């Protein structure tokens, strides 16, 4: 990956004495769409702020397109930002909101006009130039923010939870808008989210962070199906995780691993070597979700709704098939 467009070398970021990110190494190729995924407080936003130049690393280097930018001011980095907290200016028209960055760069008026109008058209907002932000829907306002980020023709685009204020339908709409723009502009993008579905849907590569460190870096397919350890597995929906030591008393293990994880739909209900009691059953339409009390503790299972049903309190057999299990490494201490 020596041809990476963006590279973080052993970057450490602090707020006073708090170390938010420690010795982070990260490379993003030209045209690549990378998602930073992790729980609240793991250092996603801090990392983005450092790439944008809003926070100076206390150690390490940041390289963009071969040039060390560690000490370069934010406005000299050609990095586009769309942060959830970067609201639009309420008293400026949509056009002026988008034109803002171009005015700062002192471009000629005619160029500003052409580029702002073009950026608005590219996010599907042609004709809204003279409106005020409050006259637009939440989704349209997010698109203005997106137009504002791309109008300066950044070399790299950073999106920090850009869809978190939107309802489910608008999120879907904006998601495809962002994918389309990324293909069209062929810009490297880093997208911060704590929502695994969003990361899976959008990114070429997902980096899972925890407590200022990278837990796993891989394609959506790998992160989804082959989480490395218990932390990543839980984060992407493996709800039943049992250590090999615990399982060894009941089953022949398929190979060495610290633990094994199953998603709810990997658990077999109604047949199998284990016994439990149904503590809860929720009908979800296509499927039924069961909470089964067992010798392993509570097990969450999700089975097709047309399979035989089991009511609360009933004894039920179940299986945790190794063929569907993810073998997991132990977590590093946080
Ligand atoms: N301005 C600040 N001053 C002191 N500590 C901070 C500051 N901003 C963040 N931190 C701390 O740095 C760590 C990383 O925070 P950061 O905001 O990067 O996390 P995040 O992964 O983006 O979380 P979220 O998803 O909640 O935005 C946290 O422990 C947080 O408490």
TrEMBL record:
The keyword ATP-binding applies. Keywords: ATP-binding, Nucleotide-binding, Transport. This is ABC transporter ATP-binding protein. Residues 6-236 form the ABC transporter domain. InterPro entries: AAA+_ATPase, ABC_SmlMolc_Importer, ABC_transporter-like_ATP-bd, ABC_transporter-like_CS, P-loop_NTPase. It holds the Pfam family ABC_tran. The keyword Nucleotide-binding applies. PANTHER family: SPERMIDINE/PUTRESCINE IMPORT ATP-BINDING PROTEIN POTA, SPERMIDINE_PUTRESCINE IMPORT ATP-BINDING PROTEIN POTA. GO terms for molecular function: ATP binding; ATP hydrolysis activity. One of its GO terms (biological process) is quaternary ammonium group transport.
């Amino acid at each position: 990956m020596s041809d990476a467009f963006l590279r973080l070398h052993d970057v450490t970021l602090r707020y006073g004495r708090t170390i938010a990110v420690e010795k982070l190494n990260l490379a993003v190729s030209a045209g690549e769409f990378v998602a930073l995924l992790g729980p609240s407080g793991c250092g996603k936003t801090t990392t983005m702020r450092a790439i944008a130049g809003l926070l100076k690393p206390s150690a390490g280097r940041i390289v963009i397109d071969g040039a060390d930018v560690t000490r370069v001011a934010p406005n000299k980095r050609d990095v586009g930002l769309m942060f959830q907290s970067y609201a639009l200016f309420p008293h400026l028209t949509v056009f002026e909101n988008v034109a803002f960055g171009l005015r700062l760069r002192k471009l000629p008026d005619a160029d500003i006009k052409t580029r702002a109008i073009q950026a608005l058209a590219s996010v599907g907002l042609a004709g809204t130039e003279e409106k005020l932000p409050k006259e637009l829907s939440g989704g349209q306002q997010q698109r203005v923010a997106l137009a504002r980020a791309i109008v300066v023709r950044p070399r790299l685009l950073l999106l920090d939870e850009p869809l978190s204020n939107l309802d489910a339908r608008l999120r879907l709409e904006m998601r495809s808008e962002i994918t389309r723009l990324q293909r069209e502009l062929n810009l490297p993008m880093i997208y911060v989210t704590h929502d695994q579905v969003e990361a899976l849907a959008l990114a070429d590569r997902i980096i899972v962070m925890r407590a200022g460190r990278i837990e796993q870096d891989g394609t959506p397919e790998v992160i989804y199906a082959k989480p490395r350890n218990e932390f990543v597995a839980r984060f992407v929906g493996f709800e039943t995780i049992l250590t090999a030591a615990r399982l060894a008393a009941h089953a022949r293990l398929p190979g060495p691993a610290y633990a094994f994880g199953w998603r709810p739909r990997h658990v077999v209900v109604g047949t199998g070597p284990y016994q439990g009691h149904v503590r809860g059953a929720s009908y979800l339409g296509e499927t039924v979700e069961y909470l089964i009390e067992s010798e392993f503790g509570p097990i969450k299972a999700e089975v097709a709704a047309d399979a035989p049903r089991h009511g609360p309190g009933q004894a039920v057999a179940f299986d945790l098939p190794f063929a569907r299990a993810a073998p997991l490494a132990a977590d590093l201490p946080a």
